[in-house]
Design a protein that fits this description.
This protein has about 375 residues and is of the alpha/beta class. The chain is built from 11 helices and 14 strands. It folds into 2 domains: about 120 residues, Aspartate Aminotransferase, domain 1, CATH 3.90.1150; about 240 residues, Aspartate Aminotransferase, domain 2 (3-Layer(aba) Sandwich). The termini are far apart. The structure holds pyridoxal-5'-phosphate (PLP).
Length: about 375
Amino acid sequence: MHVAQNKKMKLFDVYPLYDVTPVSAKGIEVIDDKSQTYLDFYGGHAVISIGHTHPHYVKRLKDQLDKLGFYSNSVKNPLQEELAVKLGRLSGCDDYNLFMCNSGAEANENALKMASFHTERSRVISFKNSFHGRTSAAVAATDNPKINAPINRQQKVTFLPFNDLDAFQKEIEKGDVCAVILEAIQGVGGLDEPSSEFYRNIATLCKTNNVVLIADEVQSGFGRSGKFFGFQHHGIRPDIISIAKGMGNGFPVGGILIHESIKASYGLLGTTFGGNHLACAATLAVLEVLENEQLIENAAKIEPYFRGLATEIPQIKRVKGRGLMLGLEFDFEVADLRKRLIHKQHLFTGGAKDKHVLRVLPALNITENHIDIFFNALKTELA
Ligand SMILES: Cc1ncc(COP(=O)(O)O)c(C=O)c1O
């Protein structure tokens, strides 16, 4: 093959980047290559759960790397079992079994696949504005035609609005549905949630129609909503729960919790990297810190403080979400405000599919003092 001289490989240009280059971080502070400190109210897409470079997390990963970084799922890995037990206890989901993978999309891919194996059906019910990832079945269940290629459009998915029980009942009773997948609090979509009544009714209709209910907790899980899982605000029990993001505090790890009524068999699911020793060490460290530092309680406690300060800003129409998965809805598009918050106030925040929503997704050990700084910065930029 002929290679042009002086040709250098470039990056496949899919990300519009902010002109910031972080080189180190601690807690909710991120420091760039010019020694400028930023406060991180975004956690890199809701990933940083226990704070950047938490000392317990760093030590556990370093210790594990010194011992054994990786072996595949062909030998025993007691760390996976330790993790399953601890996760079951802290989340109140002891009656589920754990399968580990590497990302949120992969978690939903496996969840949808399990639902299809279990029911021997293939149509999926998903909801308007949902986001479930970019792989085959996960992206087909994502309400965004722009990121669905023709190959993905072969999947049978029906998108319904939240809270329209009649429409839901009509669809599920057609008898060809394998799974209903939903986010208890929509992340990328813009922090909308179903009512408890709707969520409970769809859980009941899933049971009576033998359809697998999948709770996508990739973003809302691991304490972010102020409870371990977002669906726990509604008193329901899904059949499969998908997890990722905050689970590894930056280490790429995901998984599904499968209710024990759904049986496993050898070879049904599999992965080379999923559940490796480093991923387990990262997740165990996250669970230990969540428990020891009572971070889920902190997420629940900070929410009313945040909401209280938000009422002082007239441009904020509404505060959406729960715990530390929050969105501020303005009556203007927030892209420019986000830029000013980064470059002038040195604060990272997030956007959403709903362009009027500014997303706030900090680490769960954030303090009231940080929230004061956030609102003072916002006031300055809105003055
Ligand atoms: C609710 C939800 N599900 C799934 C995903 C996909 O996760 P990943 O980017 O790790 O594949 C995301 C990512 O934003 C998400 O918010």
